[in-house]
């Protein structure tokens, strides 16, 4: 029998529930990140995470604008079932809220003993609505509730929990948001905790307090500001990783980063061209569309000793997979009768294969007219329908990720299959009419 002193000195295998951080950037293009080929904008933290973790070439957002994409991430539902399928403003402040009956990943993690926080931007319901972050499982909130308010990086106020804190209009809000995120990690270092770090960078307006290394570039002010905002995002993410290591909890913390949708800029725009956001035409499209440039995100998973280092995978996953993944990591189970479109990615995160599924589905309702756009991916085939009256386009993503060659005329049987799958994927909702 070993002496007690020796037993106490042996390393203890980590059996604690892991901390979970999901860092969601706002309008970041996949091509903005060095690990995906960006050459002008520096992203050393994301590049480091890709080397020390896993880089995902085909990680999909919930859809291609802010509120519904975030709602998909929180609820585990794709756009065929998600209660929010568009940006819908409510005056004087806020967006259409998540319904009372909708359950989020934060609510499920709280049941498993997690401390929970959202820092940055919420955009899924003001505090007096059913979509308040405090009614959706979060203990702590700091930042912008309304995504329209979040367009200002030097705002006149910000929210600390549900209290409006006046500001002088000269304070760069990201400084305060970053401090709140780091403070939450410090305060909950004993774990387990879930941090939804919904950073507003690099969404417009394109405002920054310091252009840094880009100040003397022969670029426009907007180009310099945009590059500095991406690098600032990366820097603040780096501080998160440094804190996890300082507190010696990195080995028990999963960090996932992704964008909420594609770039705000068309490929032909100044930003699109300057920074080659389409990666020489590798991906087509941008925000508010249904092509891959709108839906594929710059995504990395980092968890020392658990997520394989240096892995670069083409296997796809989507935002609605996050909820069942987090619940499994927490050692919990989905409640009886709980509906999710997602699949747990735990085995995939650890180096296994991505889950098999019949399809990925997206839609988006812009404006007030019943003219939603749709897309569905089944295997390597991707169908796009740019409006209720539009013809179905068909692309082979394995051979044509840039979606340049529409094969609908050559593959009528696959077009019919796509149309049937689109109908199967969605539930009609009077708030989101199709025609």
TrEMBL record:
<keyword id="KW-0479">Metal-binding</keyword>
<comment type="similarity">
    <text>Belongs to the sulfatase family.</text>
</comment>
<protein>
    <submittedName>
        <fullName>Arylsulfatase</fullName>
    </submittedName>
</protein>
<dbReference type="InterPro" id="IPR000917">
    <property type="entry name" value="Sulfatase_N"/>
</dbReference>
<dbReference type="Pfam" id="PF00884">
    <property type="entry name" value="Sulfatase"/>
</dbReference>
<keyword id="KW-0106">Calcium</keyword>
<keyword id="KW-0378">Hydrolase</keyword>
<feature type="domain" description="Sulfatase N-terminal">
    <location>
        <begin position="18"/>
        <end position="331"/>
    </location>
</feature>
<dbReference type="InterPro" id="IPR017850">
    <property type="entry name" value="Alkaline_phosphatase_core_sf"/>
</dbReference>
<dbReference type="InterPro" id="IPR050738">
    <property type="entry name" value="Sulfatase"/>
</dbReference>
<dbReference type="InterPro" id="IPR024607">
    <property type="entry name" value="Sulfatase_CS"/>
</dbReference>
């Amino acid at each position: 029998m070993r002496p007690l002193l020796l037993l106490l000195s042996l390393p203890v295998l980590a059996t604690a529930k892991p901390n979970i951080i999901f860092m969601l950037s706002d309008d970041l293009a996949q091509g903005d990140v060095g690990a995906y080929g960006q050459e002008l904008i520096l992203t050393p933290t994301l590049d480091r995470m890709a080397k020390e973790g896993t880089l995902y070439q085909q990680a999909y957002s919930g859809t291609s604008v802010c509120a519904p994409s975030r709602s998909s991430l929180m609820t585990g539902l794709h756009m065929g079932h998600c209660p929010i399928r568009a940006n819908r403003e409510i005056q004087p402040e806020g967006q259409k809220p998540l319904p009372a009956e909708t359950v989020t990943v934060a609510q499920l993690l709280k049941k498993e003993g997690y401390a929970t926080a959202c820092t940055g931007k919420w955009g899924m319901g003001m505090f007096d609505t059913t979509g308040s972050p405090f009614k959706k499982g979060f203990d702590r909130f700091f930042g912008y509730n309304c995504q329209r308010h979040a367009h200002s990086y030097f705002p006149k106020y910000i929210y600390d929990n549900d209290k409006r804190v006046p500001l002088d209009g000269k304070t760069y809000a990201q400084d305060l948001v970053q401090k709140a995120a780091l403070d939450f990690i410090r305060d909950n270092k004993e774990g387990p905790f879930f941090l939804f770090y919904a950073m507003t960078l690099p969404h417009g307006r394109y405002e920054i307090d310091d252009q840094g290394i880009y100040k003397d570039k022969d670029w426009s002010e907007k180009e310099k500001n945009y590059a500095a905002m991406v690098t600032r995002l990366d820097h603040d993410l780096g501080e998160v990783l440094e804190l996890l290591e300082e507190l010696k909890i990195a080995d028990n913390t999963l960090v996932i980063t992704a964008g909420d949708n594609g770039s705000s800029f068309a490929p032909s725009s100044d930003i699109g061209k300057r920074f080659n956001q389409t990666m020489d035409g590798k991906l087509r499209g941008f925000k508010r569309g249904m092509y891959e440039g709108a839906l594929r995100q710059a995504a990395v998973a980092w968890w020392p000793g658990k997520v394989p280092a240096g892995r670069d995978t083409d296997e796809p996953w989507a935002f609605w997979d996050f909820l069942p993944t987090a619940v499994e990591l927490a050692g919990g189970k989905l409640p009886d009768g709980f509906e999710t479109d997602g699949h747990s990615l735990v085995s995939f995160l650890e180096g296994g294969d991505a889950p098999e599924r019949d399809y990925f589905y997206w839609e988006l309702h812009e404006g007030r007219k019943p003219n939603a756009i749709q897309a569905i991916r089944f295997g390597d085939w991707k169908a796009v329908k740019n409006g209720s009256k539009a013809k179905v386009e068909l692309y082979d993503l394995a051979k044509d990720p840039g979606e340049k060659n529409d094969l609908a005329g050559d593959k009528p049987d696959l077009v019919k299959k796509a149309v049937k799958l689109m109908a199967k994927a969605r539930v009609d909702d009077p708030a989101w009419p199709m025609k």
